[in-house]
Write a structure and sequence with these properties.
The protein is mainly α. The chain has 2 domains: 43 residues, Single alpha-helices involved in coiled-coils or other helix-helix interfaces; 107 residues, AhpD-like (Up-down Bundle), CATH 1.20.1290. Helix content is 62%, strand content 0%. The longest helix is centred in the last third of the chain and has 24 residues. The N and C termini lie far apart (36 Å).
């Protein structure tokens, strides 16, 4: 069975080497999942451009989407990475677990976003009218609705890359949610 290794800097194209250098400066390391994108000469740059693109969502709101989507898609790598990033964004461990479950009892607006993200992901883009109405009632507008959908898609790409490659998780591993 073919497995993909995590490429090292010396084994990737020069444009990816420059990205590795920037990631090293910014993060202190090159996450294994990002390195895996570098098997392609273009995918890492394209993905990072996509994930860093302008959006109406705040960094904290993006983490809400990332956590809910990664839980639905059962991506342990992204759950681990976004648990760490969620803490850096100011969420508590308990809030992160709740966001992963697709809710946020601690904030009605984030609750609507978490529910939308979970619903979109679980239903492959189809969203229930109730969830959609709740999103707009919570104070979001049409731009945020589209940006949330784009964020769901962006995170799903990483979820799929990890699910397909199973590269080692290089963040503290996120605990599993307790079954309700």
């Amino acid at each position: 069975m073919k497995t993909l290794n995590v490429p090292q800097r010396d084994n990737v194209a020069p444009n990816n080497q420059a990205i590795f250098d920037n990631l090293e400066k910014q993060l202190g390391f090159v996450p294994n999942l990002y390195a895996t994108y570098a098997h392609s000469n273009t995918a890492l740059e394209n993905y990072l451009s996509f994930s860093n693109a302008k959006t109406s969502l705040t960094a904290k709101e993006k983490e809400v989407v990332n956590l809910a989507v990664s839980e639905v898609n059962q991506c342990n790598y992204c759950l681990s990475a976004h648990t760490a990033l969620g803490k850096m964004s100011g969420f508590t461990e308990q809030e992160i677990l709740e966001l992963r479950a697709g809710a946020a009892s601690f904030d009605p607006k984030l609750d609507a976003l978490a529910k939308l993200s979970k619903n979109l992901t679980a239903n492959r883009g189809f969203v229930t009218q109730e969830v959609k109405e709740n999103f707009f009632t919570a104070g979001y507008n049409e731009a945020a609705f589209i940006d949330a959908i784009v964020q769901v898609g962006q995170k799903t790409i990483s979820n799929y890359v990890h699910s397909a490659t199973q590269v080692p998780i290089d963040f503290p591993v996120a605990q599993a949610l307790k079954q309700q």
